[in-house]
Amino acid sequence: MPKVLRINRTLVLPPGRKTVLAAARLIRNGRLVAFPTETVYGLGAAAADRLAVKNIFKAKGRPADNPLIVHVACLEQVKEISSCIPPGALELMQRFWPGPLSLVLPRSNRLPQEVSAGLPTVAVRMPAHPVALSLIRAAGVPIAAPSANRSGRPSPTTLRHVLEDLAGRIDAVLDGGACRLGLESTVLDLSGGRPVILRPGGITGEQLEAVLGTTVEVAEGCKTGTPPSPGMKYRHYAPRASLVLVTGARRRRLALMAALAGCYQKKGLKVGILQAPPGPEAFRPAAKRLYQTLRSFDAQGVDLILAEGVSAQGLGAALMNRLRRAASRIIRV
Ligand code: TXA
Ligand code: MG
To answer: Is the CB of 199 under 6 A from ligand 1?
Structure first.
């Protein structure tokens, strides 16, 4: 086994065949292992192990009513955790898996209730990261994994972020470098009559509609007062500084941000600016940087973040969703 670092009680495992096998053994023994995916790092435990799943909630400080996504490496594992595969699901799996799409399906009774926080459904996805896939294959069981951050903090996109939040609270973390996408998967509910996006993410609504051949609704979320996805009722991805999101026409947006920045700086506050990507072609790099930037603002002691809204086309929908949920105030100009 290559040289392995230990921080508090958390093993830091470099990628490689031996360390993946060691991590898989830990998972099988009911331990918690953080691992890289193409979206963000996940905090994994064997989905069938009730106690291990409870420990995920403890380590993150996650409210017990917020269900987890189960990660699989093959279709057989989907069948282990869901009671049926609804129409459209196979087509979506074929087109987008492995990849950043989580499907909410009817849940099998074999799965402990804690995984899906008592809901009759389960979210499942096959991650597109070689380390994640080899870990699930080596463990031989589906792995429940929320993002590997303390609850309410921005999702981790590097090993360092995972250690910042969870060193000493989990058994191990597998290093897989920086996550390629940097933003979480799309959560699509297929358990009802019509497909509904519960969380916009790496796969866009347009891409889903092209495969399903129908329009795909986006859940209104918290605005309606009855959150369709439990995760939506929590303020999320929140940096320590308060974040003000400015939306509306570009010229007015920028003018207001400049005025606000000047005003707050005069008061002695440290202001961080999150500029919108210039156009849809720059959404990908912006998504990859977002959580990293929020964390670095915290590290620099920024008091107030002024974030510029983006258009909700393509990946812009996911970016705006995260900014809205991180915001303590939204100003439309
Ligand atoms: O990209 C991702 O999805 C990452 C990586 C690690 O796979 N995972 C992730 O998990 O973002 P988490 O736990 O941070 O977010 C899961 C979201 C939450 O908003 C949760 O409420 C929702 O998915 N969710 C999970 N199971 C659900 C279910 N059965 N019904 C409705 N929403 C569900
Ligand atoms: Mg999360």
So the answer is: yes
